[in-house]
UniProtKB/TrEMBL annotation:
GO biological process: regulation of DNA-templated transcription
Pfam family, one: MerR_1
One GO molecular-function entry: DNA binding
Domain spans labelled HTH merR-type: 15-83
Superkingdom to which the source organism belongs: Bacteria
Name of this chain's protein: MerR-like DNA binding protein
Organism field: Actinoplanes lutulentus
Length: 106
């Protein structure tokens, strides 16, 4: 089990309640629920069934809110962000693969 101090640096730790997440992102709670419906973010549920959000999820929510504020449909904004995230992960994995397969310079 991780120490509580370790969780402060974990972008994926679900530290924020829906109310706090809405406050931080400047979005409504309904907007955050809709992001879940669009499969952009899937908040963890507390033992009591309440949604809990991570910093990473809050960054995605802010990006979606900005895109919607600029006139992009919510469904399209979510799809774009999902694809951007998948591309970033693929590029990261490609870099790891290239480093692992570089010839030795000895």
């Amino acid at each position: 089990m991780a120490l509580k101090d370790d969780m402060f640096g974990d972008d994926d730790y679900p530290a924020y309640t829906m109310g706090r997440a809405a406050e931080i992102t400047g979005a409504s709670q309904d907007f955050l629920r809709r992001l879940g419906e669009e499969k952009l973010i899937t908040p963890l549920r507390s033992d009591g069934g309440h949604r809990r959000y991570s910093r990473y999820q809050l960054r995605l929510a802010v990006r979606a809110r900005e895109m919607v504020d600029q006139g992009t449909a919510l469904e399209a904004a979510c799809r774009i962000i999902i694809l951007e995230d998948q591309l970033e992960e693929a590029l990261r994995q490609n870099e790891v693969f290239k480093r692992q397969h570089e010839p030795d310079e000895h």
